[in-house]
Amino acid sequence: MAVSDRERRVVQQIIREHGPILDLIAHPEVLVEIIRKWAFDLVEVPDGGLPGGVGPVNPPTSHVEGPELEDVLKAILAVGRKVDKISRRLGD
To answer: 35-53, pLDDT tens digit by residue?
Structure first.
């Protein structure tokens, strides 16, 4: 596997700070320190693209098709007229 320039620089910094040989049995905390300190330098820079798994956007709920207020008021008036007509017939 080819080593990039960035990875070589990180390795040189680790060698400079901890030496060329790590004794993880005697000092396991060194590995944790290395990971904490240099992990972000080894991670690839994101390309700024869309995250995976994003589906299509749903339409806004405020534009739902259905009766308008005017239609509801007309229906209420029609029902009111029918109720008046029925009550007049029953009252006679």
So the answer is: 999 888 877 766 666 666 7
